């Protein structure tokens, strides 16, 4: 055998061995969670690799789109559409111009969106520069299907990957103030507006209304999850979810009184954990109660929204809740406040400014009392935006959905955050 032949044989063997190792790693990979992925491919090779990824069983919950084109196509598309959880971008740009070419995309990219770049330069300095600027991975062509799968797993599946999901809890300052109604409309809004997979968990086990509000009657849901924490993984979770709309799933309350529902303090933590690992957004409908378990849920979520009506008892309770939550979450933003059922005919009310002054916060939304709109929606198992998409209340729910997910309307994002993506890690 000549030296050249020997080297070729050796290289081929090496490559086969590497492929075998990568395929073995892939065997052990957990399925990817309910993320949205959009790949922009400049070459046919990458397009084929992405198509193969899309056929893999570990991608069954992933919403994958493949578009031919590069950074410019991506920037163009996301100027008018929300960004997915992950963008995979192929580009032939190198150290000299890559960051500059990324700037227009960065200006329209949501901060939570991850980016993988597939490039053509084996350049460690460029790699470091990109990672410093918030790019999750820079992969050098030729990349194969397992490479892309493993890169996605590192971001979204690894045990030490940061939890994927953002959790938002809604609670009322008093019973009946519309906290559940607002939670359900926001969960629906978030899933619809951002095409992002959202799970709504109804934690009001005896009386929960999410099933009624979405016209569903599931036999399983949150009760099975909270009473079987040892069985709780993504497969079990899947069986407990009820699909409400294209991107919204419900973990429904039993809403039955055949048993008492007493929970120990950390009872819902395993549920929160599995939800955060499996969906980009979890909305929690927390009943109006102040027990060990509700406090534990409120202490561990990313965002808390307190809903209140403008009377004195609501004000006193909202003030106490704000103070307690600030102590429980000293390093977090203050809870958001929503004033609901404002302007009920003949009812004496505290004005929004008088209500908010002692709370030292501004409400993120003031929702008027509208018995007709809310009553019809509740009775027909539909959301406000489905009843009347053009109503000011539907627009308010859209704004709340933006605020609680940290999404900024594209219009605003364009203005001040030119290098938003490039600055974050
Ligand atoms: N802005 C509004 N205008 C008119 N009715 C409303 C408004 N918001 C909510 N409602 C109605 O108020 C009632 C109570 O709402 P909801 O069940 O959402 O409140 P809650 O705070 O979750 O109550 P609970 O304490 O029972 O959990 C429902 O019938 C709902 O349709
Ligand atoms: Mg409720």
UniProtKB/TrEMBL annotation:
GO terms for molecular function: ATP binding; ATP hydrolysis activity. The keyword Cell inner membrane does not apply. InterPro entries: CheY-like_superfamily (IPR011006), P-loop_NTPase (IPR027417), ParA/MinD_ATPase (IPR050625). It comes from the Bacteria. The keyword Nucleotide-binding applies. GO terms for cellular component: cytoplasmic side of plasma membrane; cytosol. GO terms for biological process: negative regulation of cell division. Gene3D superfamilies: 3.40.50.2300, P-loop containing nucleotide triphosphate hydrolases. Signal peptide: none annotated. Keywords: ATP-binding, Nucleotide-binding. This is Response regulator receiver protein. It comes from Rhizobium grahamii CCGE 502.
